[in-house]
Input
Amino acid sequence: MSLAAALAAARRGRLYPAVILHGRDAAARQQAALDLARTLLCEAPSAEARPCGVCRHCRRIVWPGSGAGFHPDFLVLERDLKTSTSVEATRELLRTAQVSPFEARGQVFVIASAETLSGEAANALLKNLEEPHVSAPRHFLLLAPASMDLLPTLRSRSLAVFLGPAEAVDPAAVEPLARAFANAAGRYAASGAAIYLLTAAEALTAAGGWEDPRAGRPWSTAAAAVLRSLDVEPAAPPGVRRACLALAEALLGGPAMRLRGVTAERILEGLVARHLAG
Ligand SMILES: [Zn+2]
Output
């Protein structure tokens, strides 16, 4: 889902209780969380005008430490340990979720680096999501570079909102990849021959720069090429479009898989096969 669609759902009071905001950079994810929180708690009479930016809720919903303003129903949990968000800090946040809102009609809880939640912390959060609704709406916004960085159990309980690739990619580098990928994907759709899945994955390896396991750029370039391939003639059928959108998102989780020791080629082959043939 796009951020615009999530904001529209929030205005109608239909936003899923747990939302993963992933993609782009940390600043963009924080801004998206603020936009959603303001929309959810704004008291402008017309829902269409939310967030109004001037009411007592909108004005006080700010990122912690970024200046004046505090809202008791908007809480941000930042990573408290060097590499993880601890179960203790998570439980403390969840205790606040047991009480009624102080001022607004609901509460918004933000987990700033959800990819760092310890296993125990993620399970505590999950348990909370599974509990029946308390008196007022409660929303959890989970911020992460890629939704793939979160536990599958958390992903399956949340709505994923993709904000876009992390790094600006060079359109000139994307174009030939997109054409080669579209060609192979089209051949696969027409013939069902698995060799074209390999050809499609190979087209993406041409993004280059895979030597550094932490590099995000090759994955962003590959994801951009998959998205761009949808604009290449002939137009892809709806099933292929959906598969390509999911593939592009999954590609952004590439660095996390690389750090588990899998080669880039294997990851590309696996993701292309899973999404195009699945
Ligand atoms: Zn407002």
